[in-house]
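Form 7-S
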Amino acid sequence: MGKYSILLKGGGGGRNPFPGKRRTVIARYGPYKDEYCTITKGYHGNGIHTTKYTLVSFIPMNLFEQFHRAANLYFLFLVLLNWVPVVEAFQKEITMIPLVVVLCVIAFKDALEDYRRYRFDKMINSKVTKVYCGKQRQYVDQHWKDICVGDFVYLSCNEIIPADMVLLHSSNPDGICRIETANLDGETNLKQKQVIKGLAWQDAEVSPEAFASRIECESPNDDLNRFRGFMEHANKTRVGLHNENLLLRSCTIRNTESVVGIVVYAGHETKAMKNNSGPRYKRSKLERRLNTDILWSLVLLLFMCLTAAIGHGIWLSGLKNPPFLIPDGTSPALAGFYLFWTMIIVLQVLIPISLYVSIEIVKLGQIYLIQSDVDFYDEKQALGMQCRALNITEDLGQIQYIFSDKTGTLTENKMVFRRCSIAGVEYPHEDNIKAVFDKPCQTNGVIPDPQLLLKLNQLSSAELLLQDRPEDDPQETAYIVDFFLAITLCNTVVVSSPRLPEPQVKSPHMAIKSLESMKLLFQRFSVPQFASFSTSRSNAPADSPSSFAQKLFSRGSLSTPATPQDKWIPEMDDHARGVAKAGPCGLEAESEALVYAAESPDEAALVHATRAYRCTLWARSSNQVLVELPGLGRLAVNLLHILPFDSFRKRMSVVVRHPLTNQVVVYTKGADSVIIKLVAPLAEGNPTTARLKHIREQTQRHLDNYAREGLRTLCVATKVLEETEYSMWLKKHTFAETCIENREKLLLESADELETNLTLLGATGILDRLQEDVPETIEALQGAGIHVWVLTGDKQETAVNIACSCGLLRPSDKLLTINCDSKDACEALLLKLIRVVAEASDSKGDEPSGHMLVIDGQSLELALEDSLQEPFLDLAKHCRAVVCCRSTPLQKSQVVRLVQDRLGVMTLAIGDGANDVSMIQVANIGVGISGQEGMQAVMSSDFAISRFKHLRKLLLVHGHWCYTRLANMTLYFFYKNVAYVNLLFWYQFYCGFSGSTMTNYWMLIFFNLLFTSAPPLLYGILDRDASADILQQLPVLYRAGHFSQAYLPSTFWCTMLDALYQSLVCFFVPYFAYSGSDISIFSFGTPVNTSALLVILLQQVIQSHTLTWLHGVVLVGSALFYFVFMLVFSATCVTCNSPSNPLGVDIRHMQDPQFYCVCVLTTVLALLPRVLYTSVKNSVNPTDLVKAAQLDKLGPEEQRRGIQNWRTALGYGEPSITVTAADGDPRGCHPNPVSINS
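Output:
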């Protein structure tokens, strides 16, 4: 068993570490193969089936799904109703046509999608990998779909993992395996996995038939970052299983020759498949409004049918034995009841069945145009826009609040080491500001600070080692060494080299037993000055390197003097020995060949910074890290434990065996607000108290300065553990690792117990510059009336500085700060600030005042309590901007939900990291940025962009277009349906409300289904009320979407009235024109239909803002299609409209000049009021969009002057952007603080 893992004895009366649901896994061909079938019964195979249908189930299942829509059920009801003889209005087959067409179109689309899924499933299931076969006793090629839980799988480098497997063997001597998770979460950084600790076959390939262990783990779930369980051996000892032992399906093996694992989850039970939820679905605001208006249309339909039913009953009651009626004994009341249902069938077009299909087609077209916009393409990342949500494009045009992360969203998230403070001494690294950010030097943009470099070089200078000068402080040097050791060790950076073989970390076995050993150690690293020293340990002078080492590691609580026997050094392999012989030049060249793959840019920046000081991270294994220190060469540091970073603890720790003192040392790195609280309290009377107090005070002062400069701050601390203290903690920690239930809680308690009474080493300041065009983007968004909030986990000073740099905080703004420790204090301060803001807001009306609110995480937690939510929102909504600093991911989502629900506004959340996923999913629209922190935010978002600046065009241009296009198209659908249905209704007044129609059934059905369906689609995809340049330069145009001006209830009813008027004209002008003639019913219906068609098509021409040749082709084509169909139908139809016969009617009309005169007159009279109203309104009181459309028609110079005059009138003038220095520091931004901390 390995010394880094304590195996707990199981069985007996021991406590069961995971009651509840669990999974048992044994080897399929192992010693317990007789139990295999019983244990694995019910476990899924590895074949995947993401298809929804089969050939047999497609029709019933698809129809079942489609009839979940209320509109489809409504039209199915009409079809069935038309089969009732007493209410039959049309031929039974004709009534089915609209519903059948809609169902077939959607079914065809679903079938294509499902066929694509079927082909993908077949391709995946047919992939081949090597699986152990018990009959042949060797690994054989096998399809993925045939893999089962308990199978042993052999994978080679660059091979995709077919199922979730526990790693049992790796070709890497250290038992590690590197995987790429790009197929799973989009991240290209390599992740390190490791073989289960303590396995006897770590040094030899595992034998599946000899595998007598049982795996107990949690049931299948979708948590990619958690795996809990243990492996129980035949002797009842247990080893804890963690996430680093699990290889996830769809990931790829990298930089590892081969691995062997046992399958624990297969097929749809794998974590990858559990997370495969398909496209996101959200209901848009316009869709909710649409449902309301459809209900109003239904009310209108019922009113018209009820009117017809009452009219029919009254009409029958007034007749006295009419010769044209066959007596059937039906009373007028019952006849009216039957007529009510007949009219439901006749007027069914009032409910737009094709609208839903049309909206889906239009949204697909809008998404295609958004994704095809070349302005969204980022050449550096070779990424464009991704639309992951297919049904909320119009919501992009109605956003009122934006919640943005800071790091990686507003900033580059390309960190550069800027400054540091060690032992209370600041090292400003002034030369770093001169480095070119986009072209980093060999040390990733870090130029060493001369003062710090001189102190660190004492380790490699023999003369300095032998001189005990009063100006040198050995304790400060020890702080520096531990500081660099902590940064080099406390990370998860994966080291690789594209040009050199990977250096292997050898287990240390040689102890320093004399000064001769120290001399040989330094000789290996080119320090020949020690060659003349005595090799006798007893004769070692007081100023020898041995005494220097004792002085170096003998300060306070950090380290204690160690005997030479306790010192450890690594065995140098051939690779390292060759580099040592090559001299310093060879070392430098080889160091440059190292490639660091870090999970976060902060870690990469810190590791690159240590390399600039020749403190180099060379290699990493599961239990050792190979580092190099100046003068000491390469040291193999035993890595005992890693306590990974998480958003709750906000820190990371490593437990190591110190390479020089052999002590157990804890190195911790994390947020300064957390680390400072964990520092050991100062003891009275201790001689080191004054020094420690000075270090703490100076470090805090430096941290505040870094934050004011906009730098990201981290603190570094350490702690030395006694052997007994470490043993006691190790027992508790190992038990926590083997638990399944409450494992996270126990591990958190274990970490808290370890990370206490720390000694502060120092702090770092890392630069993260703003992305390009962030100030311009924020100014444009605020000009569009959008409230911008920044939710960040950074320090308050850092957040305020970035807010100032990006223009969110202007020099004239007043800064409101809330830092409270209690609920009462928070409430009092909120009420006070509300009064301050109210006084300033009185003169501005509803416009936000010139205030910016800054609230820290602790105060935000208080403000989110039920009793304080109202005053917090009342204050925040009257501020021009809000910055929430030190906020957790949970708090981010709570803030978004609070604003969204309480204020009833449309929200957008944008971020780039895993800590932003919660707020992205809560917001109405979530936008992910594909940045440096992986792709978790992108995978959870509705839309994905590569830069924050793209948000400007996405909202102001495409969002505005999508909303106005879809809103106008929806209104147009209601308009044309109401206009046409009313023609049938007016005719009822002249046919005794009998439900008869003046046109044939085919023309009635196809009028909306074919003749007028294509133009609205083009209208909804391509119409533009203003150009992209105008919309971006005049953000005020976006505000129309805030109030849904394109689709208001008043707009809906005005459209209904317009349709009502036009239907009156289209019916009564032909009626009076042919009054007194002997034309038939169908002869009368032809000019009515034709006039209505021309009016409806030309109405769209009037409403359209863009007319191209494509619009002309579609409009003219629709009219020609109508006339061609009318002629062909009239020439060929004999019995297709039983019992009537429209044969030759339309052909005769086409030869009559009166027909054309009537159609032209009707069209002019119907459209004249609309044309006059639009002309007068646009001339007398034009809207902003009308003015913008006029600017589009001007020349470039006139357009520029017009835009500038408009901006001046609005108070914008020239864009006011804060000037930012090269290092991200704001210049000239001095906000006025209003409140003080409470």
